[in-house]
Design a protein that fits this description.
- Strands 3-2-1-4-5-7-6 form a seven-stranded mixed beta sheet, sandwiched between helices.
- It has one domain (about 5-170): Vaccinia Virus protein VP39 (Rossmann fold).
- By secondary structure, the protein is of the alpha/beta class.
- It contains five helices and seven strands, in the order H-E-H-E-E-H-E-H-E-H-E-E.
- Bound molecules: S-adenosylmethionine.
- S-adenosylmethionine (SAM) binds next to helix 1, helix 2 and strand 2.
- Its main location: cytoplasm.
């Protein structure tokens, strides 16, 4: 079984826009407890690699030896550097299900969610190969249109979807950026 109900969301997103192929290298941000990691590991297969990052510890995925996990804060430069080192080259997909700890105050949670989404986008720009895909969760609210416009500049197209439309998490939206237009630019290059 899967570690989280979220696993089915990645399945739906991947079925909609085919972001993960066999043999791919995938980076999964906000990966704990590991449902997306399980789905990604199945889809990339034994010749692929999945790198998962979270603030929380992720229990080993005993069934998958193609998964590496990093415990760290994606808002910190040193964590992003560890992800770049682990990827050891360009990656085919960056997927982010990161969400803040809920304060209960929507405007605050929404602003934090957007900040995490922008961090995921920066990481994608450091890592994604030309043609690579990006999936990111963000809570609906102010400035999300600006964020979408920024993502649109870097990909062939962006699709917005909410796999949970009928559930309580209906305020979240996933942007899928398909086909990165340019190659990675690393700070300092
Ligand atoms: N996709 C996961 C799965 O299938 O099991 C569920 C992810 S859960 C909705 C969101 C995760 O984002 C939490 O585990 C949280 O710790 C992580 N997160 C939030 N802020 C983060 C940050 N700054 N850096 C890394 N992970 C973060």
């Amino acid at each position: 079984g899967y570690r989280s109900r979220a696993a089915y969301k990645l399945k739906q997103l991947d079925e909609l826009e085919n972001v993960i192929d066999r043999g791919d290298t995938v980076v999964d941000l906000g990966a704990a407890p590991g449902g997306w990691l399980q789905v990604a590991a199945e889809r990339v297969g034994p010749d692929g690699t999945v790198i998962g990052v979270d603030l929380q510890r992720i229990d080993d995925l005993a069934d998958h030896d193609n998964v590496e996990t990093i415990r760290g804060d994606m808002t910190e430069e040193r964590t992003r550097e560890r992800v770049v080192d682990a990827a050891d080259g360009t990656v085919d997909a960056v997927v982010s299900d990161m969400a803040p700890n809920m304060s209960g105050e929507y405007s605050l949670d929404q602003a934090r969610s957007l900040h995490l989404a922008r961090q995921a986008f920066e990481t994608a720009l450091e890592l994604l190969d030309t043609g690579g895909d990006f999936v990111v969760k963000v809570f609906e609210g102010p400035d999300v249109d600006d964020f979408r416009a920024d993502v649109e500049e870097e990909f062939q197209y962006v699709r917005a979807t909410n796999p949970n439309a009928s559930r309580d998490e209906s305020s979240e939206v996933y942007f899928i950026g398909k086909g990165r237009l340019t190659a990675p630019v690393r700070p300092g290059d």
